[in-house]
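The instructor's notes for this session suggest beginning with a concrete chain rather than abstract definitions. Hand out the sequence below and ask the class to guess, before any prediction is shown, which regions might be ordered.
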Amino acid sequence: MQRETKRQCFNLMLAVILASLLLCTSAVIATAQEVKTDNQQPTAEPAQQQDVAQQEQAPAEEPSAEQPPAPAPAPKRLKISWDNTLKYSNGFRVVGQNPALIDSSVNHNVGNLDDGDRAFHGGLISNRLDLLTEIDVQYGSFGVRASGAAWGDSAYLGKSHNTSPQTWNAISVPYNKFPAGTRDLVLGHAELLDAFAFGKVNLGPSTLSFRGGQYAMQWGESLFFGMNGIAGGMAPIDVLKLLSVPNAQFKEIIRPVPQVSFQLQFNPSFAIGAYYQLGWSQTRLAPAGSYYSIADLLDAGAERMVVGPPAGPVPGWQPTAFWRSRDMYAKDWGQFGVQIKMRPGRGWDIGIYGTQYHDKTAQLHLAPERNVDMPANGKIGEFFWVFPEGIKAFGVSATKSFGVFNFAGELSTRINAPLVAGAAVVPPIPGFTFDNRDNPLYATGKTVHGQISWLATLGPNFISKEASFLGEIAWNSVVSIDKNPAVIDPNTTKHAVGLRMVYEPMYRQKLPGMDISFPFGLAYFPMGKSQAIMNFGPDKGGDFNVGVNFSYLDAWRFGIAYTNYYGTAAPFLDVNAHYNMKQPLADRDTITFSIRRSFGARYTSGNK
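After discussion, reveal the predicted structure:
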């Protein structure tokens, strides 16, 4: 968390610098264009000068009705908006703990996977207050945007309900408290989201639009399976938000990073774009010991991997374990992409993409005999996470509307992609070296990915007068394993398929000012043992949710939802420490409630 705080401070400073530079550049370009326009008074040719003089001596003619005078350009105005959303939400666990997920006598690895499950026996699992604030300032075609979020969740205040000290992984706090890293993220947290400048200028018949600062960006046509698509390497995601908010789309869970980007629109049918990222950040997972955590080794709050009992029957001696050490993070540079967007006609939109990125998820590494501290502390080595670098991706996308349906598809390939593998072991050999790019210990290879999605606004039927229906089917496959095939997880398969869809009938103005909708969401993974995408989905399992949403005057919003996780219940790892590829959330069905209020202010110069 300390590194993350430093990174956020650095990103904030970088975003401010980029935004300032971009605004200055935009101002220079705009001024130059205005000067050029003012000075564009063409000089008459010698043969034309006499005619010009005669025109100046002749009486002025009234403009004809057929040729009205050109309208004056609209004056530029300063526009400022400040929007805020205050949200209260809570959640309740509605099923008890499943022994298959917490019984370490059946699977000794459960002791490294159960802290989140044991921390909440039932009842309240979240009691959260959120504030999102956004400000936009725009003058003509140039502007700045900033946003930030803050939240607190009192469910993580005080003690947890964990009653199993023998399977507790943290070393900084007792078994019935949440680790510091977990509390820092979920008990109370604030962060900068957007902080960027933007602009648009005309370059002859073309239009150049650009951004610089910290923001999130998504290419391609992904709805839900963005990590399987072209956008998968462009931004980290918030998995905690994905699990907490039913039916969240990929665009709603991507997180901002420092970057610069542009798009040059040559004409309505052809454009090119590019970006370069100036910072890297990892995907946000459910922290260890939190309700949705499926492994005590992941992300914030992960401190120790227990592998056996204490070295001796001495009171106070710790179990033998690997302790968390410093992760191998990816560099802040070396991530970029280009795209071509075309409209060849007949309603088709085509995209061609190429990107290079560093992975936002990590590979587990064990270092036995490193910094051993035995026997009392039980430390037999260290574990850490490695974030792969230098992955290349190329893809195409297409979209077209047919009646009330809009269909979209993507096909992409990745080179030097990290594959789903077991823990890599760093041998205790003096001088042994490895890295996260050219000389890795994890498995890498070539993969191919495809997905088809749809969006539809349905008309009147026997259910409702209006409804939305959207969904996506995703597929991935490993083409080749190029490095370290021996560490590939044996429970994975070459091909994987998953789908997710949402149907939501809408009933408008059922009460004065009140709109009501009933969302139904479903995910299913008929082939979920992906070798290409970590945690792609539970094999032959998934989740579904039902809910009701109320909107009053488009300012107050209320929602209630029930989420069920179905499939064969099994912990994240099997008895051989391989990924189970089943449903680790099988006993964490929830009912959630939320209420939010939006408010803000607007200002436009020249308006009374």
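Then share the key points. Helices lie at 2-39, 46-57, 99-102, 115-118, 180-186, 239-244, 250-253. The domain at 2-17+81-139+150-308+321-390+398-429+443-604 is CATH 2.40.160 (Porin).
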